[in-house]
Amino acid sequence: MKYPTGIxxxxxxxTSHSKRGMKLEKxxxxxxxxxxxxxxxxxxxxxxxxxxxxxxxxxxxxxIIKEAYFNTPSTTDYNGIYxxxxxxxxxxxxxxxxxxxxxxxxxxxxxxxxxxxxxxxxFIIVRFxxxxxxxxxxxxxxxxxxxxxxxxxxxxxxxxxxxxxxxxTYNPRIDYLKIVxxxxxxxxxx
Length: 190
What we know:
Elements: H1 22-37, E1 42-45, E2 50-56, E3 64-70, E4 78-82, E5 85-94, E6 98-100, H2 106-117, E7 121-128, E8 133-138, H3 139-148, E9 153-155, H4 156-162, E10 164-165, H5 177-185
Parallel strand pairs: 5-7
Antiparallel strand pairs: 1-4, 2-3, 4-5, 6-9, 7-8, 8-10
């Protein structure tokens, strides 16, 4: 900011990562509600496993958690069933033009690999927030990149070549099952 006296002051806004991924999560939750209400699929967000230490009960129906901790790392964000196939996926956001591999944990990758090995459908959905782009990347394509590149992030170009762009629509908001249909059930991808 430039003051009349000629003094320049810069103010930097603090960056908060506390709500990172919440917009994508809301869009996917809305999509899953649409799938459920339309009898298309049953897919839910997994709760984070916690252990309660202290709980206050001011009244019978108003319990307040005072202290809790994460007891084990959770696996992935979402799971469910679609056309008789088990689905499991992780949803992430990135503000850059690449997806940092540090954003996804080893136990999540291992879990998605196990899902795939047992005939389920495992993938990640990545939102490039500044570009307003959403991509579906299957676990095999993800593993192909991580096992054959020494890079610490997956560039957008890899998503455009080996992933599938998820178009924003009104309802469902993030129609990722259109890609699942194309890959597993012979549906159309346009």
